[in-house]
Design goal:
By secondary structure, this protein is mostly beta strands. Strands 1, 7, 8, 9, 12, 13 and 14 form a seven-stranded mixed sheet that branches. A five-stranded antiparallel sheet has the order 2-6-5-3-4, with no helix packed on it. It has a two-stranded antiparallel sheet with strand order 10-11. A hairpin with a 2-residue loop joins strand 10 and strand 11. The protein is globular and about 50 Å long.
Length: 184
């Protein structure tokens, strides 16, 4: 599972909230849709800001919506950016967007709704040309701390009917917005 976009509180659409970022060839892990990324402070040769794999306990920039294809010599069925490969990605930078995410080290409990939590930042799985993001929320470290990257909005049931193994989250602290203290 991954950060699966579920909607937004800001005008109901992601129009205008997708930003193109470059990814340097020096990045160590595979990147694809549903992955958290953080701006690196570097720029590409074309002048576009660069992003890399997101961080666990502090601000991220957003969630990858798409990997832009590099037409020269690339199979168009590939939906990810392999490690050590330069490319460009579209990132949803809407801090009011909701995402359905898997919960690791959980389940979360009802008392966690309104609190903040760390992210799970794990490299995705590639099978052939298909990519599966393995990022999500971490039930360990749930707190009111304003610098944690995710806000727990609601608990959802997983495919086995267990409440709290899946959550609805939004970005709490981003590289363009300070986080809010969780509501205990």
């Amino acid at each position: 599972m991954a950060f699966l976009y579920q909607g937004t509180e800001s005008q109901g659409s992601i129009d205008g909230k997708q930003k193109e970022y470059a990814v340097d060839a020096a990045h160590a892990g595979v990147l694809g849709p549903g992955d958290l990324v953080v701006i690196t402070g570097d720029g590409s040769a074309t002048g576009v800001s660069e992003v890399d794999v997101g961080v666990v306990g502090t601000a991220n920039t957003g969630v990858i919506s798409a990997v832009l294809p590099n037409i020269s010599g690339e199979a168009l069925s590939i939906t990810h950016l392999p490690a050590t490969t330069a490319g460009n990605v579209l990132v949803n930078v809407d801090d009011q967007a909701y995402y359905k995410v898997p919960v690791s080290n959980g389940p979360l409990v009802v008392a966690n709704v309104g609190l903040n939590c760390p992210a799970i930042v794990t490299a995705g799985t590639v099978t052939g040309s298909m990519f599966t993001s393995n990022m999500g929320a971490n039930a360990t470290g749930v707190a009111t701390t304003s610098t944690l990257p995710l806000r727990i909005v609601a608990l959802l049931e997983d495919e086995d009917g267990v409440l709290g193994n899946v959550a609805l989250v939004r970005m709490n602290e981003t590289t363009s917005k300070l986080g809010a203290t969780g509501i205990a």
